[in-house]
Amino acid sequence: VTLYSHQGGPNGWKVATVLNELGLKYRTIFIDFKKGDHRKEEFLRLCPNARIPLCVFHRDDDFAVWESGAILLYLVQHYDPNYTLWSRDRKEQSQITSWIMLQVSGHGVIQGQAFWFKFFHHEAVESATRRYIDETRRVYGVLEVRLAEAREELWDHAEREDVLPEALHTYPVWLVGSSMTIADLSYLTWARTAHRLDIDLEQEFPEVGRWVDNMLARPKVAEAL
Questions:
Q1: Which sign does the torsion angle of CA 40, 42, 48, 54 carry?
Q2: Which percentage of the chain shows pLDDT scores above 90?
Q3: Per-residue pLDDT for 168 more than 80?
Q4: pTM for this predicted structure
Q5: Can you say how many angstroms the Cα of residue 148 is from the centroid of all Cα atoms in its chain?
Q6: Is residue 162 very low, low, confident or very high in pLDDT (cuts 50, 70, 90)?
Q7: CATH superfamily of the 2-79 domain
């Protein structure tokens, strides 16, 4: 697999974490936007939107998949026979897909706009900056509610089984099911930069903060980043 990425872009690193978790061999080519690498004919032939990430699957006749959500889904559907980051249950597959769609349409793109107006726009536009930061914060609130529900489900299960682990309040919980999936990893590389927008996950969204820490503590994730 060849991954076309960018050193400062969360979406490329998002794909790298999944490739690493699945144990796939890949090489990374970092695109230099300032040099116009993304506008070269050979790149546009693979990715008409001229953005990263892009993955070329050499085992599949050099098939190119672009857009991070599409790449994650392709990876688990074709390169995850043991359902390491996917689910065998069709309803859970749909839930995983829903969380990924929220990430690519309502999380990463919004947080990216918040970064743009806070750090890069040619003039200060406080209303735009505040609007995007507030919406980013709202999405973290949605994640917080879901993860809190997952922890409550964990408590209910433990009580039914008459098993109460000492550290249940910090035990890893996930967006869908009982193990980490691509739904969780799709948010990680953006969430770890939320502090740059003065969003304190540990204080404002403690379940999200623990969730991020649990993913970052995984050796294959840490290796990818």
A1: negative
A2: 87
A3: no
A4: 0.92
A5: 19
A6: low
A7: Glutaredoxin (3.40.30.10)
Neighbours of 52 (CB within 10 A): 25
Handedness of CA 210, 211, 214, 220 (dihedral sign): negative
Which amino acid, 114? A
Per-residue pLDDT for 100 more than 90? yes
CATH class of the domain comprising 90-224 = mainly alpha
User: CA 45, CA 64: separation in Å to the nearest integer?
Assistant: 10
pLDDT value for 155:
79
pLDDT digits (tens, 9 = 90+) for 199-210: 999 999 999 999
Tens digits of per-residue pLDDT, 191-200? 999 999 999 9
Question: How confident is residue 118, by pLDDT bands cut at 50, 70 and 90?
Answer: very high
Q: Where are the domains of the chain?
A: 2-79, 90-224
**134-149: string of b/e by CB count within 10 Å (b at 16+)?**
eebbebbeebbebbee
Contact 31, 7 (CB under 8 A): no
How far is residue 153's CA from residue 144's CA, in Å, rounded to a whole number?
Answer: 14
Q: Is the dihedral of CA 38, 40, 44, 49 positive or negative?
A: positive
